[in-house]
């Protein structure tokens, strides 16, 4: 790997909500070792990640347009929500405050906003894997009534065409095409392709031969992860790169939830605004299983009941809470969950079993996860 890895597990992502121009964006990325200046069109992956699909990564002009769209609240029907308000760059491109996302007018979504680190490598998108194309996925949240709430594609495209700021950006990215359903999706997907997380301490230690990049406790956690604890059976680590996912889905029993389903809970009504609400009154009293059966909703295959996509774990310490419903608040609780053999249910994945880990072993696995 020719690219010098960044000094720590620094995400290769522009964190300015304002955007900040192509030069600055490229500069940030090249400083972090994400872009090879010799190949301005391609995104060079940091140590430990596979090649970035060029068709998705597009051109710098597409990524610049995509960045503006990603942070633009004007893309939601009421001007309140942007992609970045649920996929917050400083929170692992997810949202720390809410177990399940809060969309239009405070409506609670069924699921937790996943981190978008390395999302360009995902073969199946969403917790149930129902979408396979990053550019097409963009229209999911844009049109969902409880997310960004647009009534249709046409009105949003018309708004963008009438916007003087966007005209030149679309022209530079897609000469002669302008704003269309396709170009909007491609631009946002191209920007998302730059959300690369790699080249950190894990990669330097495991792929760069720099043993001291991980502490002895983190190494112990790594050995447990690939050995006794069996994590790497699903969260794959390859010989030269690691995405920590098998690009598949499993029933780990999370949908059988452990959350309180009565009483009051602090919920976020809008970004930064919290209130104690009656759980039953706002419909948070569903523990998951009755209204969310995961992959089964897509395939109708009984074996897919309560199965969810295996998440990629890089940068996972930043994106609490965890699992498709955000029901586990810390990495220590996730490891406890696996240690007791997941959530018992009729179609639990056979790879999920009690692990009998000691307290030290659990702590070492958490330390390893934090090093990703
Ligand atoms: C209201 C909060 C919210 C907003 C706004 C939002 N998302 Fe999401 N996003 C979510 C949730 C929740 C999921 C998971 C939904 C599911 O699995 O059913 C998700 C899933 C995704 C995924 C799939 C990731 C994976 O690992 O499979 C991508 C990509 C994504 N969103 C991109 C975007 C983009 C681009 C926008 C803006 C156009 C956006 N999101 C706006 C909450 C949001
Ligand atoms: C049978 C496959 C499988 C095994 C084995 C497995 N996982 Fe998972 N892991 C998953 C799936 C599937 C999810 C998502 C579950 C959900 O969303 O409800 C997940 C979720 C997670 C998450 C939450 C990530 C997030 O962003 O929400 C962490 C952390 C995690 N696993 C770590 C581990 C560790 C540590 C081990 C070993 C002790 C392990 N996993 C073993 C399949 C597996």
CATH class of the largest domain: Mainly Alpha
CA gyration radius, whole angstroms: 21 Å
Strand content: under 5%
Kindly report the spatial arrangement of strands forming the biggest sheet.
1-4
Domain module count? 2
Mean pLDDT: 84
CATH evolutionary superfamily of the largest domain = Cytochrome c-like domain
Hetero groups bound? heme C
Provide a count of the helices.
13
Provide the CATH topology of the largest domain: Cytochrome Bc1 Complex, Chain D, domain 2
Would you spell out the secondary-structure blueprint of this structure?
Layout: H1 22-31, H2 54-57, H3 60-70, H4 134-137, H5 139-143, H6 153-161, H7 166-173, H8 181-192, H9 201-206, H10 216-226, E1 249-250, E2 264-270, E3 273-278, H11 296-299, E4 308-309, H12 331-339, H13 359-370
What keyword list fits this structure?
372 residues, 13 helices, mainly alpha, binds heme C, Cytochrome Bc1 Complex, Chain D, domain 2, two-stranded antiparallel ribbon, two-stranded antiparallel sheet, globular
Quick structural gist:
The chain is mainly alpha-helical and 372 residues long. The chain folds into 2 domains: 171 residues, Cytochrome c-like domain (Cytochrome Bc1 Complex, Chain D, domain 2, Orthogonal Bundle); 122 residues, Cytochrome c-like domain (Cytochrome Bc1 Complex, Chain D, domain 2), CATH 1.10.760.10.
């Amino acid at each position: 790997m020719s690219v010098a890895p960044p000094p720590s597990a620094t995400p290769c992502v522009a964190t300015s909500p304002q955007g900040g121009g192509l030069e600055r964006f490229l500069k940030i990325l090249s400083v972090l070792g994400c872009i090879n200046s010799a190949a301005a069109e391609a995104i060079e992956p940091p140590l430990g990640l596979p090649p970035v699909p060029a068709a998705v990564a597009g051109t710098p002009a597409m990524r610049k347009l995509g960045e503006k769209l990603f942070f633009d609240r004007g893309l939601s029907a009421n001007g309140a929500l942007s992609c970045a308000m649920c996929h917050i760059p400083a929170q692992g491109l997810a949202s720390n405050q809410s177990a399940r996302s809060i969309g239009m007018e405070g409506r609670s979504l069924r699921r937790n906003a996943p981190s978008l680190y390395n999302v360009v490598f995902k073969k199946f998108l969403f917790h149930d894997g129902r979408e396979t194309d990053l550019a097409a996925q963009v229209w999911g949240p844009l049109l969902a009534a409880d997310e960004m709430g647009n009534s249709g594609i046409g009105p949003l495209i018309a708004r963008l065409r009438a916007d003087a700021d966007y005209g030149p950006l679309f022209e530079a990215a897609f000469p002669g095409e302008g704003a269309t359903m396709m170009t909007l999706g491609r631009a946002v997907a191209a920007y998302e392709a730059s959300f690369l997380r790699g080249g950190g301490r894990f990669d330097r230690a495991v792929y760069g031969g720099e043993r001291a990049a991980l502490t002895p406790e983190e190494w112990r956690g790594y050995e447990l992860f690939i050995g006794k604890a069996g994590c790497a059976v699903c969260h794959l680590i390859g010989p030269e790169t690691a995405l920590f996912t098998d690009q598949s889905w499993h029933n780990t029993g999370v949908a059988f939830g452990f959350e309180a389903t009565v009483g009051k809970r602090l919920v976020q009504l809008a970004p930064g605004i919290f209130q104690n609400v009656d759980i039953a009154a706002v419909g948070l009293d569903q523990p998951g299983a009755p209204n969310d059966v995961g992959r089964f909703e897509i395939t109708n295959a009984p074996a897919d009941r309560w199965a969810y996509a295996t998440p990629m774990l890089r940068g996972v310490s930043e994106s609490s809470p965890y699992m498709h419903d955000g029901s586990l608040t810390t990495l220590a609780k996730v490891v406890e969950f696996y240690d007791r053999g997941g959530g018992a249910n009729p179609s639990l994945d056979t790879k999920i079993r009690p692990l009998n880990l000691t307290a030290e072993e659990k702590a070492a696995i958490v330390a390893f996860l934090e090093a990703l």
